[in-house]
Every structure is written in C-alpha cells, then in structure tokens.
Write a sequence for this structure.
C-alpha cells in the first residue's frame, strides 16, 4: 500500500487525514484493515473478554469482588465496563503499562477495601496472603448476612479442602468461590426478608 493509498483509506473510511485523529476503536479497525490488505488473518479477539497484559490481575480482583458479594456479575464484560469507566479506554488490551492500568487496579482494590474491609498487603507472598484476607472478609460477610454460626475452617474441611494452611493457591480460589456462593445466597435471602 502506497502512502497515497493509505491516506485515501483514512479519509474514505474514517473521515480523517491522520491516524492521530482516530479513536481507539478506529485505530483497531485500521490495523485490521492493514492486516487484511497484507493478507494476514484478523487476530482472534472478543470485545467481551479481557486479553491485555493486566487481565490476570484485573480478573483476580474482579472475581474477589464477586465472591465478596460486591459485584453482581463475574464475567469479563462487566469487568471491562468498570475498566472503561476507570481508565477511559475501550478495552484492557489498550493498557500497555502499569500507569495505564493503575486506576483500574487501585480502584478495584479500594472498592473491595471499602466495601469488605480487605486490607491489601504487598511484598513477598502477597498473592497468597491477599487470598487469605479475601477469604477472611468473605467469612465475616457471611456471618453479617445472617449465618452467625458459619465457620470458615469447618466449611473448608467439610468441603474437602482440609486446613487452610495446607491449601494450594488454586484450592484457596475454589474455596473462595464456594464461600462466595454461600454469601450470595445469604444476601438474596436477606434481601428478600429486608
């Protein structure tokens, strides 16, 4: 494609004279057009699925918020709507560095801290320690929601997880999901009675 063809394409398709004038969505469409012109296949992408560099962190925080009964939907589409509000980008794939992702990550952490009392830690083994703090917060919220006799340790044993200190990170995630389901059911009961 010559420079003249490129400029004509910009004007014809997007009504701009420079790619600097394109929105993020238009820039993505332009890249798709250029790939197609070069004979390259369009990359597999879903606007409803997180796929950026920071997707794993955002998804983990979003699922924690879901298990804590803070957000209603655990899916990426709901999380991406939050990301769009916080970071003013249409998709997490546009957050290419920590500075761009910080508003969404810190916003989620602050929201979870405010709503559920999770005190985030950093440093060595922070991931595991934060998982345990989320579990403790789910435990508190279950009791606040009306199951005063709920005991996380007993629940973990009954569900086949054994002692918390012996659980792998994956097992802690599964336990959080099971406890989150208990919490959401209890919140529904409380909401119906309240």
């Amino acid at each position: 494609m010559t420079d003249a063809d490129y400029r004509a394409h910009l004007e014809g398709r997007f009504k701009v004279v420079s790619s600097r004038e394109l929105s993020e969505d238009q820039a993505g469409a332009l890249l798709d057009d250029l790939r197609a012109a070069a004979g390259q296949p369009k990359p597999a992408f879903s606007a409803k699925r997180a796929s950026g560099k920071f997707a794993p962190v955002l998804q983990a925080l979003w699922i924690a918020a879901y298990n804590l009964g803070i957000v209603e939907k655990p899916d990426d589409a709901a999380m991406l709507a939050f990301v769009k509000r916080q970071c003013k980008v249409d998709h997490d794939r546009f957050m290419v560095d920590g500075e761009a992702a910080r508003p969404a990550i810190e916003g989620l952490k602050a929201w979870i801290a405010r709503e559920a009392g999770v005190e985030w830690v950093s440093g060595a083994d922070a991931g595991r320690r934060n998982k345990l703090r989320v579990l403790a917060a789910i435990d508190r919220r279950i009791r606040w929601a009306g199951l005063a006799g709920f005991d996380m340790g007993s629940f973990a044993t009954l569900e086949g997880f054994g002692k918390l200190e012996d659980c792998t990170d994956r097992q802690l995630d599964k336990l959080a999901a099971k406890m989150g389901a208990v919490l959401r059911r209890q919140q529904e009961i409380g909401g119906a009675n309240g």
About this structure: The chain has a mean pLDDT of 84.
